[in-house]
Structures are given as C-alpha cells and as structure tokens.
DNA sequence: ATATTAATACCGACCGGTCGGTCAATTATA
DNA sequence: TATAATTGACCGACCGGTCGGTATTAATAT
C-alpha cells in the first residue's frame, strides 16, 4: 500500500543533508535544484515531493543545521547554574565549536541572513524568520544576565542591550573569521572577548 | 567634438545614485538592470557605457555609499587625540549616524557581505573586497588601542583581537537593528556598548 | 549662416542561456 | 494488476549583456 524504499522522513533528511552540502559550498543563488538532486542521488522531481520550493528547501536546511547547536547548548546549560559559566559556554559553543566543527558550512548562515533580509517585505518571509531566531537567543542571554544581577555577580546593566551586543559580537566575529580564517585564532579571540565582557559587567 | 548632455562623471554619479536606491530597496539578486536604468531615466544599454557588468555597478555603488562614513570619520578623528574619545566617535559614527541617516540603505551592506562571501572563490572577488575593507577599519581601531595602551589609559590587551571584536559588535548590532528597528534604541545600545567596552579595557 | 561631416551618446529590441517547477511516462512495490 | 513513487525531458519566464541604428552636438566647409 505504501511502497517506499526508505521511510518518508528519512528520505527528507537525506535531501536536507545533500542540500546542506551543496548550499554551503555554492551559496543559495548559485545552487541549482539539479545539484541537490544529484548529490542526493535522486531525480529533481523527487525533491518537489518533499518540498514546495527552493526557498523551502533552503529554509529547512538552515533550521536542520541550527538544531545541532541548539542541542549542544541546551545540554551544556543544564549542567550549571552559574551565570558566568553560562556566558562562557554560550560563547564557546556559539562561536568556537560551531565554527571549528563545520566552518565551511557557516557561510550558509550568511546566505540565510541575506535572504532573510531580502525577504523582509515578501510573502516568503515566514520561511526566513530571522527575527524569531534572534529573539530566541536574545531571551536566553537576557535571562542569564538577569540571574547574574539578581545574585549580585553582575552590575545592574541593561540586560537586553547587553544581550544584543553579545550576540552581535559573535555574529560579527564569525563574519570576519569566514572572510579570513588566518587573521585571528578563533579560540583566543573568543576568550579575549569573554574576558573583556566579564570585565565590563562583573561587579568588582 | 564631445557631444554630451552632462559631464561623463556626473552621469556616472547619477547612475550610481539610482543604483543605490534600487539595490537598497530590492537587494542585489532581485534588482534588474532595467530597474536601475528606468530609475536613472536612461536606457539599459547606457549603463553599459559606464560599467562593465551588474557586479561592477553594485560594487561601485557600495563604495560610493561607504565614502560618506569614511569622510565623516576622518573629519572627526582629526579633531581629537584622546583614544577614549576616538573610540566613542568611531562607534557613534559607524553605528548611530550611519544608520540614522540612511537606515534603509544599510541592507545593501548585507548584500555586499553575502556577495563578497559568495565571490570568495571566483574571479570577481576583487570587486567585492571585503577583506580589505575590514583590514582598513581594524587597523584604524588597532592604532587607537595601541595609543591608549602607550599612554596608559588602557590595560595591556590584545589590540587586534579587541579591534576585531569592536567591529564585530557594530556589524552585528546593525544586523539586528535592520531586522527589527523597534527592538532597541540604537543610540542607547551604542552608548551601553561603549560604556561596557571602556569598562572592560580602561585601566582603573 | 547653413549644409555637411564626423564623432559620440544613447537606446531598446533582441539573443543566448539559465533554471525553477511540472507532468506524462516509467519503475518499483505489494 | 493496482497503486504509489520516481524520474527527467520539457516548458515558459526571466535576465544580463549586445549591437545596429538613431539622435545630438560640434567641427568644418562653403
């Protein structure tokens, strides 16, 4: 009744995996659906059994990719209650681990930014919901900062602004590192940044 | 002998102005050369009398746009020798003034990022020389930080890493603000960031 | 002054190529 | 055999860039 070589979800995952490979190597614009199909070892038409459009494939590819870091983060966060340690972990995972594990894949994030901004005033903007993504992380850091202030570790700073700035710095460093990975050592820069940040917000 | 309605350079500027308007509204990919031509009130073919390709128009548009901030910056820097003040000015101009003056135009920067990254391994990469652009600003800040350390205002920090982080934060904040200008007040966030930064690097 | 010639600016119809998406035909499964 | 899954040839829209022709101006000739 339901003849199928593999499970429907499994096949979708396979397509996403192929898409991740191609998108990160060629970028959104230069990637052709036929590339994705061939990489996945299937016909082009098959993709459209699982996805509506190229945009949808791209958006789901990005989210698929982001799940990794989300899981890493949740796992790490569950192991400590110290706000200082949480900040360290957030930067370490978000910047160092993500890039070291899959540096070449990160340019997909740039594409997502670009497409997301481009889509701001179109109907596909819900696929590229950057705002929601940022809200999520901003809230996460905001809560950590609030905790720190409550417990007296941090100065009474504007937590939302600071959270925004932390995420901002991480994004920006990622950008610069992608442009020229030899310029600075990512781990070292991350540590310097964390130190400087804590220097600025810790109560003396 | 040289029949021409307006000066050749003037016309090129007019095209760039039109291009700036269209590129910032529609992004690189969605902008058609005919859009630029119509906005400039000329024929499509005429553009190719002044530029080699769409990529060249885009690259020159971006540089044209960046000159504004460069001039602002040089002017402001020439008025003080205080490293602390220079840092303030850099952030104020780079983040607040640039966005307040022409917020809607800034999405062109994202496109430039995206195209620049995409062009990394192609022959047009010299048109989208992001690396050089970043090097310029990084050096600028690096020098300011060195001065500050020499004169004893700043702690002995890694200046290159710190410079990278400062630029990174500014880029990232710009991104977030473009995504949602209502989320935070740019001026306030810039001030908070500057305060936090100085808190972290100033000698006590 | 006017006609003629020359040089250049300007234009937009057109071309070649590309690519996302469709669908009739084919293959695999039960 | 019936049904579901897969495929890739095909379609139509799109677009960057070209090129032959026209318009405009200036220089020169008469």
TrEMBL record, chains A, B:
DNA-binding region ranges: 32-51
Record InterPro entries: BetI_C, Homeodomain-like_sf, HTH-type_Tx_Regulator, HTH_TetR, Tet_transcr_reg_TetR-rel_C_sf
UniProt KW keywords: DNA-binding, Repressor, Transcription, Transcription regulation
Record has tRNA processing as a keyword: no
UniProt GO molecular function: DNA binding
Domain HTH tetR-type: 9-69
Keyword Transcription regulation belongs to the record: yes
Protein name: TetR/AcrR family transcriptional regulator
């Amino acid at each position: 009744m339901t003849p199928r070589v593999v499970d429907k979800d499994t096949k979708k995952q396979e397509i996403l995996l192929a898409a991740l490979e191609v998108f990160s190597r060629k970028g959104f614009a230069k990637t052709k659906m036929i590339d994705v199909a061939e990489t996945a070892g299937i016909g082009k038409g098959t993709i459209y059994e699982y996805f509506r459009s190229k945009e949808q494939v791209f958006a789901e590819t990005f989210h698929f990719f982001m799940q990794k870091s989300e899981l890493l983060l949740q796992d790490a966060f569950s192991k400590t209650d110290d706000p200082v340690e949480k900040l360290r972990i957030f930067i370490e995972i978000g910047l160092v681990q993500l890039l070291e594990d899959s540096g070449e894949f990160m340019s997909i994030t740039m594409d997502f930014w670009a497409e997301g901004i481009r889509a701001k005033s179109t109907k596909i903007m819900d696929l590229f919901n950057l705002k929601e993504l940022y809200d999520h992380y901003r809230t996460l850091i905001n809560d950590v900062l609030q905790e720190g202030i409550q417990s007296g570790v941090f100065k009474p700073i504007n937590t939302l602004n600071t959270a925004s700035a932390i995420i901002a710095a991480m994004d920006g460093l990622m950008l610069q590192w992608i442009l020229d990975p030899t310029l600075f050592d990512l781990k070292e820069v991350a540590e310097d940044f964390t130190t400087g940040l804590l220097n600025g917000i810790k109560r003396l």
